[in-house]
Every structure is written in C-alpha cells, then in structure tokens.
C-alpha cells in the first residue's frame, strides 16, 4: 500500500528551505583561492549569490489537512470528519530538518534529513508523530510558466515514509482510525509536491515555497520512495528533462483491481501559471484512458474507438487541488472491458483533437510495453572499501515481475564544464554487476563496492568523486521514453588515514576552514571554524554535533559530505588534550597546493539562474557541449 491507497489525508501549505548558496559553486571549495568577498550576498548571481548565510533548514509552514479519502468517499469538511483542518507541523521536541545536496556537482538529488512531523488538532499535542526517512526529490521540471525576479520555476516531488510513527490521543476521526488500522505498524507513506519557491530577499515569501501532499498507508516490504504501480513517462525533446512534449509531466497511478478503481496522482505533472500554484490557463481538457491494444511504438494520437475512457481530470473544479493534492480516483466498475483488461493494457493521458471527441492527442503514455524498473533509494555516500546496496524493483503494467535489469555508467545531470573538476574518474573506483535478475516479486539488490583506496583524490580541493549508474529492464524497447531522473548517484569518498595524534594545523584546520568558508552562518554568528581559539571555546557543542548519527538533524557537517575517517580524526583531536589541557595545535602547516584551474567553458546564465538548480542543469548541458567539442 502507498499514499495512493485509501484511507489517505491531503494537506496544503508552505515549506521553507533556507539553503546556503555558497556551496552550490564547486570552485568555492578551493580554500587556496577563496576570499571573504565570496561570502557576500549578490542578486546578480556572482559571489555568494542570493542566500550565502542559509542555515540549511527544511520545514513545513502553515500546513493543514484540507481533504481526505475514505473508501469511495471524498471528505472536505470538518463536519464530515474532524481530521479536516488539523495541522501538519514540525516536531516540537527537536530542531527542524535539513535540506542537503549530495555534492556541489550533483545538486539534483537534494535530500531531507532529520525531519519529524506531527499531526495536531490544537488540543492533542500530536495525534500521530513520525520521522521522515531521508529521501531525495525527483522529477524536476519547469512547472511554473511565469515568474518574478529570482523565482525558482522548477518543481519537484519528495516521496518517503514517516517511520517510528506513534499515535496519541483520540480525535474521534474515522479517517485517522482507518489509516492507523491500514498501515504497517510504525509507518505511513507520504508524498509532497513542492513548487513556487521564492529567492528574492525583497519579497515576503523569501526562502518559502508551496507544498501539496498526501499521507496514506504503508505496508512493510514495499518500496518507500515510489509507488509499485503504473508509471506514466513524459517524452522530453532532445533529452531536456525540463520541458515535456505535451506540456504535462510524468506521474504515477495505481490500480485497485478488487475495488475496480484507479488512483492517479496529477499533483506534480500539471503546469502552473505562477508561484501561487494556479493552474496554467492553457491546459487543455484532459482524459485518462486505456489503450485497447498494445502498441510497439510511441503514439501521438488515437481514435476514439482505440481507447476505453476512464474519465476526465477534474483540475478545473474549484478547490480540487487543495482537497486532493491532485490525486484523483477513477471508478471503472461500470466498464466490463476495463474490468477485464485494465491490468494488461497501457494507460494514456489524452486531450481531444476534434470537437466531437472522435480523436485524441496522446500527451503522456505508460511505459512502452508496460515494463518499468526503479531503484527505491537512489543516493549513497560510500567509504573506501565500503559498499552501498540499492533495492531495485521491476514491474509489468504495475505488477511485480521477474526479469533482468541492466546497469551501466550514467552520470545524468552531474558535473559541469571547466573550470569544474572532471567527474566519474577514475572509472574503476567503484564496481557493480552489469545485470541482475529480479525474483518472483520483481526485486533485486544491487551492491556497489568502492575500491579499498577509493577514487584517490581526483578533484583536488574537494573530497571524493561522483559516479552515476543507469538501469533499465532488459525488455525495454529502444524507442521507449525513459525517465531522465532514474539513475543512482554515488559520492565515493577519498581515502584518509586517521593520524595517531592529529593536530589543528596539520589535520583539523584544513577540513574545518572549508566549512567555515561555505557556511558563514556558522563562522559569523557561532564559531569561526577556521580559528583554533574559537573552535576550542565551543568544543563541547562541536563534539556533540560531530558525534551525532547521520540521520540526526544536528549532524555536522550539515551537508554530510565528510568521510568517516575525517570525522573520526576530528573527534580524536577534540578528545585528546595536550599538556595545556587543550587539543593539540601543532606546528603551522604549509599551504596546500592544488592543480591549476583549466580555462572556463562559457555558460550563458542570467542572474536569476545562478546558484540554483537551473544553473546546475545548464552546466550539465554545457558539459555535454564541451565533451562533444574537445
């Protein structure tokens, strides 16, 4: 079960992502060339850009339950069920969660770490409370059609589970009682659509965006970060993941054969006019349907006699998005053909081509042949000699199916042209099989292993190296539309021998200075990370932060890009006092020498695009041009 099953809750409100923008530029990791001037806020996109003193927090703001589904009933008012109007809030017993990029050269898998959420009605402290398991966003696309200065027009989806869920109090809610009964103990499924993010310090919604989401049941053993269901994949011209052919993006559905219903999530795939979230007025009428015959080719149009219609998408109905977060249920029990064939024929999203509905344009299709493969969690940090495992699921028309999954290098949107360092070199620093069979439940476990000496230090001033792994089911047709974002991202750490007696000057200062440069919110307002006296003054709080588990919201460093051996070295230094009772300072170390920068390959950026996900994607496109030209 998942958030597309019932019972489910729908919520709307805002989120805050107070990201730091200095660490979006990889060359700022070079302490030899970094200057304090690079920490300045600039709206023209230079230097530290629009939010250099970001704290990294991610939190929900003003979110309330605005709709619910129980069986075949849509619930929209408090009189129908008192869960309507309750607040989905952050934890009141810990700090806010953090939004974390894997690496400055891979900003397309930003993860939420350390977030705890609770549902409250104002009388009970928490009707339920649970920990959001770390998950990366996916399916970025340019959903927002118009923008004001510095608006982020890209939107994305987070899907995960709330774990260690505890239920408290009694809201006298039939929906909550049913949700608790339907879920595996300790878990709930959650999906969040984020959009309309404001980056201009001059506007009230600075660092704020909109969120619409759904919470539903979860059963153990199922994937946590996607739905084991029907996958609708939009075609993208020229491989550009931001602009789909039909103006509607990828989405997922789930068939409930026993109830003869289909749930489809349109919450992220429909374009919006502006940051308010109002739908683009140019969206045409939309209808979900089933093809009566399989096709070996991508279809651009169909006749009315070639499809069985499931129903129109109700996006233009007043209050629809707030009350459903874009999730709509289609009852096909009255269509005998659908009852007999929906589990073995492709789904299509249509819009009429003719006034009499005799023909339709196909905007989005189910994966060609119905085959789909997906890694559940798809981000990992790997120590030298260590490994990471990824659950891979394969489905055929939404049902788990035994097949073979093929794996190959694919760095996707990672990296940029010079002066950025090369990525994925050396290529043999990680190893993994080229293919794996899935079991009868459609599952395989991919293990990726790093060499004992890791990748070396190929990027010089920044630790580790980035690698990407693409995958596909063996039956996937060559002409099939594929989801650009379906790849595994790995940061393989560089080797770092733990010194017997670490000293500040030789070992600790070179590490902490980098973080002091990248996070002036720390160095300017709490502790100067590059200064020995300041660090030892705040030693106890730093010991606590560096010793927290990686899932903890107080974990340090917030970006989670410090290898285990470097963290061990820092803690050993903090816990090993010298004759004066303070950690060893040591002799001054020589300034580090890094490789000279290569000539820059020009990237044409507007100020509003700098230090953003849009910039990262434009650098990806520039990298492809650079590689083609050299």
Q: Could you characterize what this model shows?
A:
The longest helix has 17 residues, at 613-629. The chain folds into three domains: 8-19 and 54-366, no CATH class; 370-492, Immunoglobulin-like; 504-574, no CATH class. It has nine helices and 32 strands. It is 13% helix and 30% strand. Strands 14, 15, 16, 17, 18, 19, 20, 21 and 22 form a nine-stranded antiparallel sheet that branches. An eight-stranded antiparallel beta barrel has the order 1-2-4-7-8-11-12-13. Strands 23, 25, 26, 28 and 30 form a five-stranded antiparallel sheet that branches. It is α+β, with helices and mostly antiparallel strands. Strand 7 (116-120) and strand 8 form a beta hairpin. The relative contact order is 0.13. The mean pLDDT is 93.
> Which runs of at least 5 residues are low in confidence (pLDDT < 50)?
none
- The N- and C-terminal alpha carbons lie at a distance of 50 Å
Number of domains: 3
Structural class by secondary-structure content: alpha+beta
Oligomer: single chain
Q: Give the percentage of residues in beta strands.
A: 25-35%
- What would you report as the Rg, rounded to the nearest angstrom? 25 Å
Mean pLDDT: 93
Helix content: 10-25%
Query: What is the makeup of the main sheet?
Result: 9 strands, antiparallel
How would the global form be characterised? globular
Count of alpha/pi helices: 9
Beta-strand segment tally: 32
């Amino acid at each position: 079960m998942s958030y597309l099953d019932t019972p489910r809750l729908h919520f709307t409100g805002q989120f805050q992502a107070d990201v730091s923008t200095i660490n979006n530029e990889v060359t700022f990791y070079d302490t030899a060339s970094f200057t304090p001037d690079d920490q300045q806020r600039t709206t023209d996109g230079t230097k530290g850009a629009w939010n250099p003193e970001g704290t990294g927090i991610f939190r929900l703001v003003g979110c309330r339950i605005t709709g619910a589904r129980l069986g075949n009933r849509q619930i929209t008012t408090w009189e129908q069920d008192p869960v309507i109007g309750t607040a989905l809030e952050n934890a009141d017993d810990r700090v806010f969660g953090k939004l974390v990029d894997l690496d400055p050269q891979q900003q397309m898998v930003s993860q939420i770490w350390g977030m705890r959420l609770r549902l409250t009605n104002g009388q009970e402290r928490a009707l339920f409370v649970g920990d959001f398991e770390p998950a990366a966003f996916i399916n970025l696309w340019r959903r927002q059609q118009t923008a004001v200065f510095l608006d982020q027009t890209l939107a994305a989806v987070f899907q995960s589970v709330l774990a260690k869920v505890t239920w408290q109090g009694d809201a006298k809610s039939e929906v909550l009682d049913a949700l608790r009964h339907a879920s595996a103990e300790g878990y709930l499924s959650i999906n969040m659509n984020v959009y309309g993010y404001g980056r201009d310090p001059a506007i009230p919604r600075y660092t704020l965006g909109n969120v619409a989401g759904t919470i539903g049941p979860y059963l153990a053993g199922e994937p946590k970060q996607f739905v084991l269901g029907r996958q609708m994949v939009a075609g993208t011209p020229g491989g550009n993941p931001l602009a789909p052919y039909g103006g509607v993006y990828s989405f997922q559905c789930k068939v409930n054969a026993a109830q003869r219903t289909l749930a489809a999530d349109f919450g992220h795939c429909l374009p919006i006019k502006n940051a308010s979230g109002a739908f683009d007025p140019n969206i045409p009428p939309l209808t979900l349907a089933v093809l009566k015959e399989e096709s070996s080719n991508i279809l651009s149009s169909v006749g009315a006699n070639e499809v069985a219609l499931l129903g129109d998408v109700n996006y233009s109905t007043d209050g629809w998005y707030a009350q459903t977060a874009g999730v709509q249920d289609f009852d096909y029990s009255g269509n005998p053909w659908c009852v007999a064939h929906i589990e073995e024929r492709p789904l299509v999203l249509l819009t009429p081509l003719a006034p009499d509905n005799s023909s339709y344009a196909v905007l989005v299709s189910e994966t060609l042949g119905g085959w789909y493969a997906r890694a559940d969690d798809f981000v990992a940090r790997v120590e030298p000699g260590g490994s990471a495992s990824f659950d891979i699921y394969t489905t055929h028309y939404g049902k788990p199916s035994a097949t073979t999954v093929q794996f190959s290098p694919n760095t996707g949107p990672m990296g940029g042209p010079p002066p950025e360092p090369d990525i994925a070199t050396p290529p043999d620093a990680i190893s993994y099989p080229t293919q794996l069979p899935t079991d009868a439940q459609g599952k395989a476990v991919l293990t990726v292993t790093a060499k004992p000496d890791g990748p070396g230090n190929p990027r010089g001033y920044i630790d580790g190296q980035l690698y990407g792994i693409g995958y596909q089911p063996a039956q996937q047709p060559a002409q099939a539309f594929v989801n650009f974002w379906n790849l595994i991202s790995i940061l393989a750490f560089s080797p770092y021998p733990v010194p017997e007696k670490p000293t500040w000057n030789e070992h600790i200062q070179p590490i902490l200075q980098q973080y002091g440069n990248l996070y002036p919110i720390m160095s300017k307002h709490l502790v100067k990370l590059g200064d020995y006296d300041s660090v030892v003054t705040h030693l106890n709080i730093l010991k606590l932060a560096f010793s927290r588990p990686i899932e903890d919201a107080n974990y340090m460093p917030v970006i989670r890009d410090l290898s285990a051996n470097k963290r061990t070295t820092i803690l050993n230094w903090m816990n090993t006092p010298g004759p004066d009772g303070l950690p060893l300072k040591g002799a001054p170390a020589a300034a580090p020498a890094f490789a000279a920068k290569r000539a820059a390959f020009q990237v044409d950026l507007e100020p509003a695009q700098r230090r953003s996900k849009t910039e990262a994607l434009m650098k990806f496109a520039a990298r492809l041009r650079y590689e083609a030209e050299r």
